[in-house]
Structures are given as C-alpha cells and as structure tokens.
Fold this protein.
Amino acid sequence: MQVTSMLSAGYLEPMSNISRVQQVSEDTQKTDQAKQQKEQEILAEEQALKAKLGNDAQVHTVYHYSMGTDGRRYIVGASVTMKGSEEDLNRVGGGLTTEDIESRKQEVQDALKKDAEKTEDTQNIIKSEAEKREAKQKEDKAEDQKDAQVRELEGIQREVIAHEQAHKASAGEFGGGISYTYTEGPDGKKYITGGEVPIKLRQGSTPEETLRNMQQVQMAANAPADPSGQDRQVAAKASAIASKARAEITRENSETHELTATVAQGTPIIEPVSREDEQQDPSKDGVLSLLATVKELQLQNLMPAA
C-alpha cells in the first residue's frame, strides 16, 4: 500500500489512499527567518512520520523549495510517499487501525442495511396505499351497485302499487283488499315486489245481471297498463261466463218471440155489441175499424163464432 502526504505549515495531514498536496503560498513567506523556521518544522515532522512507520516501511520524500532573500533555498513543503503494511500506514498521523477499518466497514454495511430496510418500508407503504386505493375503489363500486339495486327496487314498488290500485279501483264490489309481498333491499329496508287483489266471479240472479258482473270483472282484470298472466286468466274466465250468459239471454229472447207470435196467430175474441154499436162511425179507423168489421162479419155469419 502506498500513501502520499504533504508536510507543510508546521503539521502533517495524512491522506487515506488519495494524495493531496497543499501548496504554501509564497506570499506567507515574509522573511527568511520565517522560512528557516518552517523548514525545521517540516524536517521534524518528516522524522516523526518515519518513526511511526517503523523500520519495515519505505519512505520517499520530495521537498518543495522557496528562494529566500539571502539567495538560499528553504524547504517550504514536502510530499512524502510511504510504502508498508496497511496497519503501519493507518497508524501514521492518527490513521485507522485494521480494527477501526473493520468497524467502519460494519458501520457502512449497517447503514446500507438500514437504507435497504427503509426502502422496503417505503415499498410496503406504497403497496399498502395501493391496496387501500383498490379497496376504496371496490367499496365505491359496491356502493354504486347497492344504489342501483335500491333504485330498481323502488321502481318495482311503484309499479306494483299502481298495478294493484288499478285492479282495486275497477273491481268495485267484486274486489277484495290489496295484499303485498316484500323483499329486503341491500340497505336493510323492505320494498314491495308483489301484490294481489282477489276478484270474485259472482254470477247474478239473471243472465243479464251475470253478464254485467262479468263485464266489470273483465274490466278490473285488464285495468293495469301491463296485465299479468294471472290477470289475463281471470279475464278469460269472466269472458267465458259472460258468453254463456249472452247465449242464455239470446235463447230466452228467442222463446219469448215465439210465444208472442203464437198468441198473435190465435182465434180473436169478439165481445157482443149493442145495437147502437152497429152503426159505424166514419171517423174510426185502424184497430177500432178492424174490430167493427169483424163484429159485422160475425153478425152476417161469414166468420165462425169463438
């Protein structure tokens, strides 16, 4: 190992592995006496340095001179190159021993380890923050989905209420009370998601009353804007009953018509008339005239008596 030191200004400043020469400005050399004193100090430091190195070390000195006013050259600096063991060289000028060097190495390693731990801690913090952001994003997404589900349930509730209210309003006396079914939402509240209104398919005492009842039941079943499958089934049943009632009404009307026609074609009943009634009033016509003619024919034996 080789170490170069600069001897000047009355002290020795050892350098670790790097040569450094401190030049003395000639402006500080005011007098030859000062130069002579400095020379003695440099030489003394050189001897002390050699003594510290021991006999095994090699020392090579290069002196730096300055011309005095008396024409003599004075030593104003020296570069000392030392060769020897690491322990000897570190001992010079307050240098480090091998143990000190190992201690310094350990300190450096510990510092590097701490830096690595600090870097790891920083990375862990960054990772933790990233996980927090990701968790917050998932939470926000879940909250958005929850809000969407709540809005959907609220919409279903409005539709069901309107649907059943339409049934109830149109059913009148044939409708029962509204009953609802509920579903718990993600917010813990219960929402109406189903309902029904019982409707009676009540027949009347006459076909006409039955027809009127079934027409109202059909209107109640089809009252909502979007009748359900069950609503259409109720309407279909009411329609079938109404069709039977119409058929019965038609049959009864047909029988009544036939009875009326039979009575109209039967033998007319002629009441006896007085002599005064035999005189026909020229002002009479229509039914009255027909009755008078029938009576006259009877009297003339042109029509058989009842």
